[in-house]
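For the sake of transparency, this paper describes our internal protein records without simplification. Because each token names a local backbone shape, the row as a whole describes the fold. One such record is reproduced below, unchanged from the form in which we store it.
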Amino acid sequence: LHIKEITYQLRRTAGGNNTPAFNPVLCDATIDFASVSVFATTTAYEDANDVGIASPNVLNNLMFTTTREGDPATGSFIWENQEKFRGVYDLHPEGYTVITDLLIGVAVNDATTYNDETLEIDVMMIAEPKKVTKDDLERMLAQSTDL
């Protein structure tokens, strides 16, 4: 399978909501930094800290972060929310050929906004069939042994 793109939509489907909009403010006022990371890979990483845009066999990476700065004594805070997506087209402009399982990883740190809630994630993949030749397979095996 030759993957051109994989995109994600995080959805909050808790009762009482009319839309599945994902609240980008990930934490309450007691937390300074919170994050959510979603990534696609063909390698089973044991720790999401090992997954970066230059990590072997990583197809894409989506990162949400919330940073809070301020004075707890006055209750005055500045919140900054960021969303950064590095897609298959960024990391592998020609696409990525997969001959094994494709894994979707999700890691969360201090996202207290969603305590006791279930979030859903939709995954959409744009791909086309590809016949893998012997030369392609040898090249993939050589790359994996170089790592």
